[in-house]
Structure formats: C-alpha cells, structure tokens
Design a protein that fits this description.
The structure is a single chain. The protein has three helices and six strands; from the N terminus they run ααββαββββ. By secondary structure, it is of the alpha+beta class. The termini are far apart.
Length: 153
C-alpha cells in the first residue's frame, strides 16, 4: 500500500480555533481598521487598496449582495447622494476575533457607528480575507455588515 503524502500544512487542532501568528493578526486588524479610517476620510482609493477587486459585500444599507468594484461604486454613489443628514462622524471597530487558515482569514468584530445627527449604531461584522496582492498583504474578499441596534452611550 502506498504511503500517504506528507501534509503540507500542520493540522488544525480539533475543538479549537486556529488563531494566528501575532504578525498576521496585527496585519489583518490593520486592514480592517485602515478600511474604516479611509472611509471616514472619504478616501475611496485607500479603501479599495484593502479590497479584492471582486470582493462581495453584504452592505448594511443595501439589500442586494454587492459583487465587485463596479457595483460597490454604484452603492457608494447612491449613499453619498442620500446621506446628507445621516453622515457618519466616526467608526470604531473593536472586540475582534480573528482566525487564520493558511492564506485565508476570518475576522469577526463589532463596529460602532457614530453619526453627526442620529443615534449611534452597533454592527456585527464578519470579514473574510485572503493573503495576496502585490505586496503579499491581506485583502478583504467578503464583508458582511449586520446592524445590531442602537449603541449605548
């Protein structure tokens, strides 16, 4: 009987999440927080640098799955036109749980959204990232935003 080929990756521990190296966890969290910093600054180009061009997004304000940059730009343009009184004053991501599976990562976290003229909201978010891109960094390939309710002040 032929021998099994050697595994290319160490096995994932049974019954536990894999976590990740401190460097990967920090790099992934930097992508998440960098995305929100760029959003607050209105810097689409920087936001896009954190996104795979074919990323999918369940946007909290859009019922359809957003597929790719062209659809995302249409959502962005519609939001800009409609959001005069409900513009965000700040975004704060926190409470992250991140796991790395080789070149794939899953980040779960809370996002507090503060508005200039409305009650703050809390959103539960999940981001799926892949290692890649020109600098071999992490890119978001899917983002799921779920508004959970008003934030306590």
């Amino acid at each position: 009987m032929p021998a099994s080929p050697p595994p290319t990756l160490p096995p994932i521990p049974v019954g536990g999440r894999p976590g990740g190296t401190p460097a990967d966890l920090a790099a992934i969290w930097a992508v998440i927080t960098g995305t929100y910093q760029a959003y607050t600054a209105g810097d689409r180009e920087r936001i896009d640098s954190f996104l795979d061009p074919d990323a999918t997004i369940w946007d909290s304000a859009t019922p359809e799955l957003v597929c790719g940059k062209a659809e995302l730009d249409r959502v962005r343009d519609a939001r800009t036109a409609a959001a005069a009184g409900t513009a965000e004053a700040g975004l704060t991501a926190y409470g992250q749980v991140i796991d790395v599976f080789a070149d794939l990562a899953v980040a779960r976290y809370w996002l507090r959204v503060d508005f200039h003229a409305a009650t703050p909201e809390l959103a539960r978010n999940t981001a799926v990232l892949r290692r890649g891109g020109s600098d071999a960094g992490w890119l978001i390939v899917h983002l799921h935003e779920d508004v959970h309710g008003a934030a306590g002040t």
